[in-house]
Design a protein that fits this description.
This is Peptidase M24 domain-containing protein. InterPro entries: Creatinase/aminopeptidase-like, PA2G4/ARX1, Pept_M24, WH-like_DNA-bd_sf, WH_DNA-bd_sf. By secondary structure, this protein is of the alpha+beta class. The chain contains eight helices and 15 strands. Strands 1, 3, 4, 5, 6, 7, 8, 14 and 15 form a nine-stranded antiparallel beta sheet that branches. A three-stranded antiparallel beta sheet has the order 2-13-9, with no helix packed on it.
Length: 372
């Protein structure tokens, strides 16, 4: 991490224009990577190659900023490794070359979820989107679930304002799911983010369950949120099939002494290249990375992201955007234009409260709105 990460007097909030600039640089590069990966997600495309493409675009774009002579050097690069999860594989599928050889290429009609992120000086912007491979019009349950996720993200964006409670947001997500005849997936959390921390303890759950209770608070000014929504035509109970993890993240509070040199080499590379952000095994150059990671995970130095699955035959949509809540406006900075004409559904929003939120301005007034 950059040395100034430890400086307590540095303003790392949205009140600092330089912080906003860095979030927006990161968002611009994430948006570009998403656009290019989506263009490449055609029949016959390799999942591994698409993941490499997304990562490369982010790294290439990062190399162009904060690089002039005399400028302070900052950490910059991948904030979340490009992941391509297809059909019943819901998330965190980010293969290395070995895994990529065993992964089927994309086919017409596949439902593809793309997840990636970029960080500049520790300020991360993440982005996830869902598409169906091919050019044909999409109808039926595939269209329903994708439109549900997009509608939920749009409504939550409008509702993410000071004074609105976390569970009010959860309620909106669940209402949208009901309108489209689908379910919000259990265990999916939207996180408030901060410098070098992609997942703070402040979270909004996508579905209210007895097992998944979170602390209810209110949105405040100058917060940054990664709003993460997963909709499914299934029951919403995603499964971990004990597949080998492909995405990992360094833990923040572990000081365990590693025994193997391979493990120490991996941890050193993670500290230098990834800092506290998630990474894929393919992002590491160590020849014995797999061996080193095993001890790191056993020692709680590095945490794996499990690959989650839905029941085969069900359809899942995943969307995620980074949103800035400033005193003057709500700004969704990772986004792409949704092709409404291609995804056609007979379902629509009819709930009066949801329709009201869709019409609210993203410009904020002085008076806090608690009408969710």
């Amino acid at each position: 991490m950059a040395d100034n990460y430890e400086e307590q007097d540095e303003d790392t909030t949205l009140t600092n224009p330089l912080v906003v600039e860095k979030y927006k640089f990161a968002a611009r590069f994430a948006n570009k990577a998403m656009d290019e990966v989506k263009k490449g997600a055609v029949e016959g495309a390799s999942v591994f190659d698409l993941c490499c493409l997304g990562d490369k675009i982010i790294l290439d774009e990062c190399a162009k900023v904060y690089c002039k002579k005399g400028e302070s050097q900052v950490d910059k690069g991948i904030g979340f490794p490009t992941s391509i999860s297809v059909n019943d594989v819901v998330c965190h599928f980010s293969p290395d070359a070995e895994e990529g050889k065993n992964t089927k290429p994309l086919h017409e009609g596949d439902v593809v979820r793309i997840d990636l992120g970029c960080q500049i000086d520790g300020y991360v912007s993440t982005f996830a989107d869902t598409l169906v491979v091919g050019k044909e019009t999409v109808t039926g349950k595939k269209a329903d679930v994708i439109r549900a996720a997009q509608s939920a993200l749009d409504i939550v964006t409008h509702a993410l304002r000071p004074g609105v409670s976390y569970y009010a947001i959860t309620n909106l997500i669940e209402k949208v799911a009901q309108e489209y005849g689908v379910n919000s997936a259990e265990g999916v959390l939207s996180h408030r983010t901060s410098r070098y921390i992609i997942d703070t303890v402040h979270v909004i759950t996508g579905k209210d369950t007895p097992e998944g209770k979170v602390r209810d608070m209110e949105i405040e000014e100058n917060e940054v949120w990664a709003i993460d929504i997963v909709m499914t035509t299934g029951t919403g109970k995603l499964k971990n099939k004990e597949s080998r993890p492909l995405v990992y993240k360094k833990t923040l509070d572990s000081s365990h002494q590693l025994k193997l040199q391979a493990s120490r080499d991996v941890l050193n590379e993670v500290n230098q290249k990834c800092q506290t952000f998630p990474f894929s095994v393919r992002n590491l150059t160590q020849k014995r990375a797999r061996i080193g990671l095993q001890e790191c995970v056993r020692s709680d130095v590095i945490d794996p992201y499990p690959i989650l699955y839905e029941k085969e035959g069900e359809h899942v949509a995943h969307v995620k955007s980074t949103i800035l809540v400033t005193p003057s406006k709500i700004e969704r900075i990772t986004c792409t234009k949704f092709d409404e004409a291609r995804y056609q559904t007979e379902k629509k929003i009819t709930d009066a409260a949801l329709l009201d939120w869709q019409l609210k301005s993203l410009k904020l007034k002085d008076k806090k709105d608690k009408s969710a």
